[in-house]
């Protein structure tokens, strides 16, 4: 009997696209939380009850003394940097693989991002590359717990201690991830999470600043309130009958921003936070089962979690080793062919990032805020050399030879167990025909000259 063709070549797709669940969930808890805000009639304010309640509950969840709700993950990261004293012309080491918000937050603080290569199997910042990137202007290291996987912080903290640097954590994707048994985010001086809809704790838009340092927390609170002379203890004076009124003169003592969150988003996030441990446990079990299936396939590399770390699997990146799979083909061709074939099977498949962060135009032109600021504050560093893409071979190799299963709208955490199993079925089906698939891709020039 002739084996049925894969969907790309006329077969029946493995997965029906409508079988996917969209994210975030809008269940009874979330609807009740929104109704509670509307019934109360208080929809804004740094001291509003849902905001404060969420901050206290998230702080406990993240193992932090302080948590402050912000209007985005990017503003949470900016708060962390600014409140910790990072400013004009300082260098902050960031990974060459992350979302652009990581280095943009550094720029917002007036500081300069210095990129370090990553581990090609995990996508996490390479501690050796961090050490090599440290210079006289370096003031902080910003590891990213990318894809929801906790970075190995031990060598990063060791480098920071040797050079008297701060560690600011980008935990935007990593709600609940742990390193050595404790939650990430506030292990360094400060950190930031995102509440954007695609995140495991999605609430539309929003972010959370966290720290265990009282002084940094107070500074962050002032910065997110226009730089005004406010204190965290002032929240106790909140009057629900007059939620928009306060007793302090509106005097700004430093440059600040309006980075507060809002009651509706806080209520939604608070309701989802109560369910997050359950969602995360199911997501992790599904990721483990999927990885076990993919590990049987020659040349397919499932996500790796460093020893001592856990992952909440915000993203699920699969790498290909063409040689181990018995294929003689360029990585980008194999990647593009697999994307075509898996999508034809009904899977959600994305690339997310396609090049190291220094390849983005904002870092190529370095126009900054005008006249090249903040790069213009540094006349010693050769940024053409520092941002040369040849310095980040591991990042480039990882991106060229991998793809992400599931998508922003339909992430792994949202999917039922049986659908995840169907993903493994589809992957096995396509991989079994990989030689035929590669011949087709070479004939059609798929993955060449920008054709995906």
Question: Mind explaining what this structure looks like?
Answer:
This protein has a seven-stranded mixed β-sheet with strand order 1-9-8-5-4-2-3, with helices on both faces. A four-stranded antiparallel β-sheet has the order 10-11-13-12. Helix 4 (about 100-110) links the parallel strand 2 and strand 3 (about 110-115). The chain contains 14 helices and 13 strands. By secondary structure, it is α/β, with parallel strands linked by helices. It has two domains: about 5-25 and about 275-355 and about 395-445, Alpha-Beta Complex (Aspartate Aminotransferase, domain 1); about 30-275, Type I PLP-dependent aspartate aminotransferase-like (Major domain) (Aspartate Aminotransferase, domain 2, 3-Layer(aba) Sandwich), CATH 3.40.640.10. Helix 2 (about 50-60) packs parallel to helix 8 and helix 3 (about 75-85) crosses helix 7.
As a percent range, the share of helical residues equals: 25-40%
- Cα-atom Rg, whole angstroms? 23 Å
CATH 4th-level superfamily of the largest domain? Type I PLP-dependent aspartate aminotransferase-like (Major domain)
CATH class of the largest domain: Alpha Beta
Residue runs with pLDDT of under 50 for 5 or more positions: none
Largest sheet: 7 strands, mixed
Strand content: 5-15%
CATH architecture of the largest domain: 3-Layer(aba) Sandwich
Output the structural class.
alpha/beta
Secondary-structure element series: HHEHEHEHEHEEEEEHHEEHEHHHEHH
Keywords:
452 residues; alpha/beta; Aspartate Aminotransferase, domain 1; Aspartate Aminotransferase, domain 2; 2 domains; seven-stranded mixed beta sheet; four-stranded antiparallel beta sheet; 11% strand
